[in-house]
Amino acid sequence: MSIKKILITFSKKIFEEREKNFYSNRLDLHGKTVSMVIEALTQKGWDCHQLNVDVPLAELVPSLSNQNANFVFNLAVCSAEIYDQAFLPSLLDALNIPYLGSNSTIHSFCLDRSLTKLSLRGIGIPTTSSIQWSPGDLLPDSLAYPYIIKSRFRNYCLKLSSDSIVNDQESLLKKAEEVFNQTGEKVLIEKFVEGREMVIGLWGNGNNPEVLPIMELNLSREKPLYDAEIESKKGYVDDISCPAKLSDEHKTMLESMAIKIFRELNLKDFSTFHLIFDQKENLPLFFEINALPLLHYKHSAFPEMCSHRGVDYRSMVQKLLQIAMERIRHERN
Questions:
Q1: Could you say which residues form the signal peptide (predicted)?
Q2: 326 exposed, middle or buried (CB, 10 Å; 0-12, 13-18, 19+)?
Q3: What is the largest CA-CA distance in the chain?
């Protein structure tokens, strides 16, 4: 039996930047994520090759097409120097190379915070209220502060912080104009809800995706929200509770909602959802869908949730490959 070839695609520059921040006090973990992915797949008999996809498009296309790979284990949130995570799946589809995760349409949709909210409401999932704004637009006469100002499109370069929360119209307009000037796109003005911030992870396909242990973040409430600074400093390892302390009723409700999102929006292989559990209203408010969860070792949410399920990192990688390959076989039949 011939050994099949697999590409591990990632942005070298972004990986190095993130590892510098994530593992500032753990130099032994630098490079560990990609090396463990390779180890896990090699154990299963695959011929593994790394491919940095953050290169000019004229270089990327032949690099992919000339590899003759049977599968791509995709870790790339950016490719061809300027494109977001939706681009590489589109290119792989054009080259007829199967890959881990959802297609480009789903990625584009999930990166658009406004479309995400509209779709959640459309399938009956509660989400935080929001409006879109650009310079010249009138604000509603009565706004119930606080609000949080976000770019409409999620971008690895644009990070949320406590400074994104505003409590009056003057600070709202100032922050909204700042974000608009950075992006040139309409800005999302979202109601800031105080509550328990959680992440739900799923993997699988079809009618029965598996929900991983629900994780609660920012237990110490060091800041009013889990922001980029906390993510860099603590990751999803410290100041968290997994599984989150929930009543059986709330746990069942959250899992059912997560499965509904995964199935109705046609996500593939794995995903994570962020939500705020508004305790005043006794209601979970979903506000982010991530179709390509980060897999940084000893840092990211998805592998940590797997760990709390008793699945170690290498086994997680192997399981993700198995899930994706089963989906591909089903699609081709």
A1: none
A2: middle
A3: 70
Angle among Cα 87, 160, 194 to the nearest 5 degrees reads: 125
Q: Among the listed ranges 14-28, 168-182, 258-272, which one has the minimum average pLDDT value?
A: 14-28
In angstroms, the CA 10 to CA 59 distance is: 15
Domain assignments of the chain as residue spans, ordered by start:
5-100, 108-127+194-332, 130-191
228 pLDDT above the threshold of 50: yes
pLDDT band at 3, cuts 50/70/90? low
Cα–Cα separations (whole angstroms), residue 85 to 101, 105, 110, 152, 314? 11, 11, 10, 16, 24
Pairing of β 130-133 and β 196-204: unpaired
| CATH superfamily entry for domain 108-127+194-332 | ATP-grasp fold, B domain (3.30.470.20)
Instruction: Say whether 253 sits in a helix, a strand or coil.
Output: helix
How confident is residue 243, by pLDDT bands cut at 50, 70 and 90?
A: very high
Residue 82 CB neighbours (<10 A): 10
